[in-house]
């Protein structure tokens, strides 16, 4: 849209009206993220002050939420994660059409702790990986996973782009057939706060997942620390009870 600069309506109001129409048309689905201030400045050929006035106007109307250092988002827009379907954390983002990516932060071998022995029994050493999950290049969750079966030949690049379950099934030669999930509240320590770009002590969702191979061996135990302001869990139920079904690519 080209702004009418001789119009009695102020420039910032014209920009706000344009963005409002685009929001109503679903242009910023599915993530709900609006262009950055610098992108809007270039698009409309106006000053940063004018762009900020337009965004403030939309914020006051309750149409968008502005998050310092992160950008502007359509109000109430959240990433949905259906927990009644066996689908990976990463794939649950991608199947919504989101610009989802992973960044591998660490990979090493660790002695099996007493807490993890109840899942992995006599396995003395586990492979540990830590990956940051992003949407539109913004951190949304940190995943920490432990495995007893993991191919040492997998490259850093493969682990960064392929879902966990796909990697595990390739290494084990059999399918993962069950996943146990628990969700609870967790408060960010300094490390989590720095990684997820939140304040120390900020509330997070903590999703704990343990998955199992068809032969009943534990495939992996993972902890996902999730920013709650843009994330929600959904569950479909019926009179016969919730049924967890496999759907789509393998998980991670």
What report would you give on this structure?
- This protein has 2 domains: 64 residues, Orthogonal Bundle (Arc Repressor Mutant, subunit A), CATH 1.10.10; 156 residues, Chorismate lyase-like (Chorismate lyase, 3-Layer(aba) Sandwich).
- It has 8 helices and 12 strands.
- With 252 residues, it is α+β, with helices and mostly antiparallel strands.
- The strands form 4 sheets. It has a 6-stranded antiparallel β-sheet with strand order 5-6-7-10-9-8.
- The C terminus is likely disordered.
Key traits:
252 residues; alpha+beta; Arc Repressor Mutant, subunit A; Chorismate lyase; 2 domains; six-stranded antiparallel beta sheet; two-stranded antiparallel sheet; 12 strands; 27% helix; disordered C terminus
Summarize the structure.
With 252 residues, the chain is α+β, with helices and mostly antiparallel strands.
Q: Please identify, by name, the CATH architecture of the largest domain.
A: 3-Layer(aba) Sandwich
**Helix share of residues?**
25-40%
CATH homology group of the largest domain: Chorismate lyase-like
User: What name does the CATH topology of the largest domain carry?
Assistant: Chorismate lyase
Largest sheet: 6 strands, antiparallel
**What is the top-level CATH class of the largest domain?**
Alpha Beta
Structural class, from helix and strand content?
alpha+beta
Low-pLDDT stretches? 242-250
Q: Output the strand order for the largest sheet.
A: 5-6-7-10-9-8
Number of domains: 2
Strand content: 25-35%
Protein name: GntR family transcriptional regulator
GO molecular function: DNA binding; DNA-binding transcription factor activity
Keywords: DNA-binding, Transcription, Transcription regulation
Organism: Affinibrenneria salicis
């Amino acid at each position: 849209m080209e702004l009418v600069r001789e119009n009695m309506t102020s420039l910032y109001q014209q920009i706000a009206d344009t963005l409002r129409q685009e929001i109503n048309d679903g242009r910023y689905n599915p993530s709900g993220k609006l262009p950055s201030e610098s992108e809007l400045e270039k698009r409309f050929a106006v000053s940063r002050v004018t762009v900020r006035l337009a965004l403030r106007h939309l914020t006051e109307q309750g149409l968008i939420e502005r998050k310092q250092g992160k950008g502007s988002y359509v109000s109430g827009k959240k990433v949905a994660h259906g927990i009644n379907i066996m689908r990976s954390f990463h794939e649950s983002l991608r199947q919504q059409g989101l610009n989802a990516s992973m960044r591998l932060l660490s990979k090493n071998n660790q002695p099996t702790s007493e807490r993890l022995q109840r899942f992995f029994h006599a396995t003395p050493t586990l492979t540990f990986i830590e990956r940051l999950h992003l949407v539109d290049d913004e951190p949304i969750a940190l995943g920490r996973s432990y495995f007893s079966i993991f191919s040492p030949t997998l490259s850093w690049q493969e682990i960064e782009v392929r879902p966990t379950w796909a990697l595990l099934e390739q290494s084990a030669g059999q399918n993962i057939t069950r996943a146990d999930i628990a969700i609870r509240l967790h408060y960010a320590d300094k490390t989590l706060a720095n990684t997820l770009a939140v304040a120390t002590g900020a509330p997070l969702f903590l999703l704990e997942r343990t998955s199992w191979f068809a032969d009943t061996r534990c495939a992996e135990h993972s902890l996902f620390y999730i920013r709650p302001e843009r994330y929600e869990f959904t569950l479909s139920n019926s009179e016969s009870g919730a049924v967890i079904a496999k759907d789509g690519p393998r998980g991670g």
